[in-house]
Amino acid sequence: MAISIGLNKVKTAVFISGTGSNLKSLIKFSKTEKSPISVSLIISDNPKAKGLIYGKKFKIKNKVFKFENSGLIENQLINTLKKNQIKLICLAGFMRILSRNFIKKFKGKIINIHPSLLPKYKGLDTHQRALDNNEKYSGCTVHFVNAKLDSGKIILQKKVRIKKKETKNSLGKKILLQEHKLYPKAILKIFNL
Question: Does the pLDDT value for residue 37 go beyond 90?
């Protein structure tokens, strides 16, 4: 990882689309002494994302982009990230696919959390797919983002046992609790802490 910490924490942007529970856990983590990051900016594609409320509570700048004209928007997004000196991007339930060009500009500096044990169940509806295939385990993965969906180098994974009468919702809740713990651990790992 080519991000150096020095004395100052690394300015980080968290990209969200929804409830922002991983955002909340990243903000809490960023406030601890051992954290190498400070959440400086929240980016959302959804003006109604509940996660934006956490940002306001913690007085973190946020910006909402409507991704209709993606080329134009992406240039504005890149400018916003540069202006705010963002060195790390954490995707946390961000439901847009970033372009190859965008990923190239921030190569090695975008990480994502995904609710399955990658490479299994890339994309959406991971819990139902794991149940449909009678998997004994599912879990979550933090990985670097590359141009292929959910295919970047894996940083850390956490396994979760699937019980006999598990539902999509009960499995989702169990995995989400583990996501909140795994994301900070993965960040510490990429900074060799």
Answer: yes
